[in-house]
Write a structure and sequence with these properties.
By secondary structure, the protein is α+β, with helices and mostly antiparallel strands. The chain is built from five helices and three strands, in the order ααβααββα. Strands 1-3-2 form a three-stranded antiparallel β-sheet.
């Protein structure tokens, strides 16, 4: 019974992680951080959004343990805690690319049938 409860807890944590990645701006933050540490201001400029909005997205990613902060004076820098998150994002990207490719093939096939 404990094993089942542990599996459910892991699935709940996985759902929370996926939920935190359900915003394209957060995915862009992860993309940027794969290149290395960035400040809140740098990320805000890259994303083209206000620094306060960027901070909210960073707080979501920090809460789930994807990123960690480092303060240098009055500037806060963020980095990825575990680079495997970028591998997971890459895998999802590949799945979507395959789905789009299949969808285009199906669309072309359907058009040829008309």
């Amino acid at each position: 019974m404990k094993e089942k409860a542990a599996k459910i807890e892991v699935l709940n944590l996985q759902a929370e992680l996926c939920k935190s990645l359900s915003d394209s701006k957060r995915l862009r933050i992860i993309q940027e951080l794969r290149e290395g540490e960035r400040s809140v201001g740098e990320l805000a400029e890259i994303l083209g959004i206000k620094q306060s909005n960027t901070s909210q997205h960073l707080a979501t990613l920090r809460k789930i343990g994807i990123i960690s902060p480092r303060k240098a004076g009055s500037t806060v820098y963020y980095k990825l805690v575990n680079p495997k998150i970028t591998e997971a994002c890459d895998l999802v990207h590949e799945v979507i690319a395959e789905q789009l490719s299949e969808s285009k093939k199906l669309s072309s096939f359907m058009q040829a049938q008309v």
